[in-house]
Write the structure tokens for this entry.
Amino acid sequence: MNFCSQCGEKVRLAVPEGDDRPRYLCDACGTIHYQNPRIVAGTLPVLGDKVLLCRRAIAPRKGYWTLPAGYMENAETTREAGLRETWEEATASVELKELYTLIDLPHINQVYMIFLAELRGDFAPGVESLEVALFDERDIPWDALAFPTIERTLAHFFEDRRTGRFSLHMSTITPEDRERYFGSA
Amino acid sequence: MNFCSQCGEKVRLAVPEGDDRPRYLCDACGTIHYQNPRIVAGTLPVLGDKVLLCRRAIAPRKGYWTLPAGYMENAETTREAGLRETWEEATASVELKELYTLIDLPHINQVYMIFLAELRGDFAPGVESLEVALFDERDIPWDALAFPTIERTLAHFFEDRRTGRFSLHMSTITPEDRERYFGSA
């Protein structure tokens, strides 16, 4: 951030009075520009023994497999965001079940929220997907998954499926967890 | 938003190519300024039969009672945000338990996440609180609560306490739910 989105003057990074961390401040109009984490909402669509994955048509991680998920938009709920992303990326209708993984990624200011879902009917690649397919556990492309959040969510799912008990899993992804996917850059 | 925070030129509101909703666009440098919901993280601190509430020293709803909660910051986890807000508003240390309410407020682009917590030791008003106190169920100031999210979280808690089973409650607050607190403006 270089300029104030309210008045167009230059901003500077400094700790406001009474605050404890640096913010972008506009000395011209007095606006404090707060920046906050974003929610990535999505689903784990299940049909019988199989789960639905999408192969990414866009960066980052183009060509790698992921669950349908993306940034939650203003004016929608977390569940609506999960449904919308599932439709946009996989042209798939699902019946949403419970919130299944909630994963913090503090180093990139994201919070993932993935819902269990039952796949209803057909599916087809959306514009952000190269292909969409159903996978048995033994066929999951573990070495070609797009993000550590996806690997972790799928691992929880197949583990929980052995006991039949699915509950919310909360955890944190560290920079080290991400290195395997993105390198240490 | 009036100006581009990257280059300082005027932005305009329009639907980008390939998108389906209006964004603030900068024709000068090409930046698309996405805006996304914010997470409000907090806790429901419990000590024996009592719960801890804070009376707000700041707008909105100054003078009304609330649970310690506030905007999640970049570079922290949801749990860290709940702990930090509890310390800032009530100078209270807590042991975090499970995520208890997750409440969407799509009309104001917020998602509340309140954790159950066990209060440890003392407490005192932080700079954003006029006072902090412990309440039995029969003494909860239901007519002087700050926000509908707080009323709903407390109602779930006292209901669940009768059965001893505490599980995640997900729900949505509508503009109508908020009218009782803020009027219909």
User: Anything to note?
Assistant: The radius of gyration of chain B is 19 Å. Chain B has two domains: 1-35, 38-182.
